[in-house]
Amino acid sequence: MALDGAFLYAVKQELNVLSGGRIDKIYQPSREEIIISIRTRQGGFKLLISASASSARIHITQMSVDNPMTPPMFCMLLRKHLGGGKLSAIRQDGLERIIYLDFECINELGDIVTVTLACEIMGKYSNLIVINNQGKIIDSIKRVDGDMSRERIVLPGMSYELPPRDDRISFVDSDEETIRSTVSNLKNAELSKALISAFEGISPVLAREWAYYAGKGKELNGAEMSSDEIDRLVFAILMSKKALIGNDCCFTSVTNKEGLLKDFSFIRLNQYGNLMITKEHTSACELLDYFYAQRDRTARLKQRANDLFRLLMNTTERITKRIANQKNELKDCEKKEDMKLKGDLLSANIYRLQKGDKKAVLENFYDESCPQIEIKLDSRLTPSQNAQKYYSEYRKSLTAEKKLAEQIALGEEELKYIDSVFDSLTRANTENEVNELRLELAEQGYIRAVKLKGKPPKSNPPSEYLSSDGYTILLGRNNKQNDKLTLKTAAKTDIWLHTHNIPGSHAIIVTNGETPPDSTIEEAAIIAAVNSKAKDSSQVPVDYCLVKFVKKPVGAKPGMVIFSNNKTLYVTPDKELEERLKK
C-alpha cells in the first residue's frame, strides 16, 4: 500500500528529533534510495528516503544497507550541496504527501544558504528534489522532461512548482463543524471512495476503516447515510485527528495467513476481522522499517544479482542440452555389437564375396536358427576392407561409449554445482554474499574475473544457531564456505548434515566430543532443510554423519563432497524455528 499524508504526518512528528542535527554522511544504496546519517545531541540517526514507485517513503531506519563502492552522481551532488549542513526545519503542507527538509549549508563562497530537500511520496510520481534558496531546482533523483509530463517538468535550473493538488480538506486542520459539513455532502458513491475524494491525505485502508466503523461492518453509500451513521463517521475521523495531534497513535500492520504483509496504518485496523493477523509497533518509523525492509532487501539484491541469475540459467540450459546430446550419442553406441557381428560374418565369408558387391546376404551362424542377414557393402572396397570398416566402427563406438559415459557424469556433477550456486544466490541476504558468489564463479571460470576497486569482499562468518539443548549449529552461506566449514573448521567428532541429493548448505553440530540428543539433530536437520532448495517441501530427507566420514574427491568443485556411515532423517522445514534458534 502507499504511504498516505496522514501517516506521513505521524512520521514528520517523529522526525522532529533530527532538528538541529548535522549531516554526517550521505549514501545512495540503490538508484532511487538515499540514506542520510545525521548527528544530534541525542545521538546519531539514519534517515532513509526512497523515491521508488512501489515503496516510496521517508523515515528513521535501523537497517544496515550495503552501499556501492563508487557513489552515484546524485549522491555526489547531495554531498557537495548538503555535506555538513544543519537541519533547520521539517515542513509538511497540510496532509500533502510531501516532506520538506530545510538545511543550513555553506556554499562555495562561504555564505550560509538554505538548501531544501523536497521528499515527494506520491507512488509512481515520487521524487527527491534538491532546491536552492531562490526556489530553483538544483537536481532531482528522477528528472522529468516534457516528453514524460505535460503538467510538471522537473529539471535542473527550473523553478520548483508544487504538484497538482485537488480541492480537498485536511481533517487534521479542520474543526468538527467543517468535518461534519463535508461528511454530510459526500458524493453518491461507495463511502470509502467518497471519503478519499473529500479528504486530503487519506489512503484506501484508512477510508475503509472509517467506513467500517460508521456502518458497523455494513457497506454504506456516501450520499445515503443516516444521522446516526454520520455521527459515527464524524466520531471516527475526530478520533483519528486526536491520535495524530496528541501523538497517541496505534501503529498497526496486517499480515495474511501466508505471512505476506498487506497494509499498515496509524490506527487499529478492525476491517479485516479474522482474515488477517495484526501486529502493533512502537513508532511510525519502526513500522515502516519492518514493513519495507524485507521487500526492499530482496528487490535490491535481485537487481544487483540479475546478471548472475541470467548466467546460471543459461549455463544450466547449455549443460542440459549437452548432456541430452551425449546421451543420444551413447544410445547410438549400443549398436556396436551389431558392427562387430557384421565384421565377423564378412571375415568368415570373404571367399564368397567380390569387390564391387553392394550387399552381402549371409547366414548368422552365431544364432542357432542361422537366420540370413543383409549387410551393406561399399562397392569401392574389397571384402577384407569392408570387414575392417565394420571393425573400425565397432572400436570407435567402444571408445566413444567410455568417453561419453565419463562426459555425462562430469556434466551431471557440473549441473549439481551450478544448481547449488543458484540456490545460494536465492538465499543471499547481503551484497557481500552476492560478491562472494561472483568471485567463486570467476575462480571456476564461468565469468571473467573483474578487478574490484578497493579491498576484495570480506567473507562473512557461517550463520550461527543455538539448539534448544544448548548446542551450537553452524551453517555455510555458499559452496566455498561449506568446504571450509566441513573440511577445516569442524572437528572430526562434530556432526555434518546436508539435504539428500538436494542443493543446500552444509550444517555442522558442534558436539565438543559429546553425543547430542536427537532433538538437537532434528533441529539442525530442519535448519539444513530451510536453507536448501527444498525449503517449500513438506518432507525433506536430510543425511547426517560424523565429520570424519565426509571426504572431498580430488578435483571436485566447491561444496561437492562424498560421505559414508550416514543416516537419513525426514523433517518438515520450519522457518519460524530457524529464526528462533538463530543467534
Structure commentary:
37% of the residues lie in helices and 21% in strands. The protein is built from 14 helices and 22 strands. It has helices at residues 5-15, 73-82, 176-184, 191-198, 204-215, 227-245, 284-304, 306-332, 336-348, 383-426, 431-443, 479-489, 518-530, 575-581; strands at residues 22-30, 33-40, 43-50, 57-61, 86-91, 98-106, 112-120, 127-131, 137-140, 251-255, 261-265, 277-281, 359-363, 372-376, 463-466, 472-475, 495-499, 507-509, 540-546, 550-551, 562-563, 567-571. The longest helix is centred in the last third of the chain and has 44 residues, at 383-426. It is elongated, with a radius of gyration of 35 Å.
Please render the helix and strand layout as text.
Layout: H1 5-15, E1 22-30, E2 33-40, E3 43-50, E4 57-61, H2 73-82, E5 86-91, E6 98-106, E7 112-120, E8 127-131, E9 137-140, H3 176-184, H4 191-198, H5 204-215, H6 227-245, E10 251-255, E11 261-265, E12 277-281, H7 284-304, H8 306-332, H9 336-348, E13 359-363, E14 372-376, H10 383-426, H11 431-443, E15 463-466, E16 472-475, H12 479-489, E17 495-499, E18 507-509, H13 518-530, E19 540-546, E20 550-551, E21 562-563, E22 567-571, H14 575-581
Antiparallel strand pairs: 1-2, 2-3, 3-4, 5-6, 6-7, 7-8, 8-9, 10-11, 10-12, 13-14, 15-16, 16-18, 17-18, 17-19, 19-22, 20-21
Helix pairs in contact: 3-6, 4-5, 5-6, 8-10, 9-10
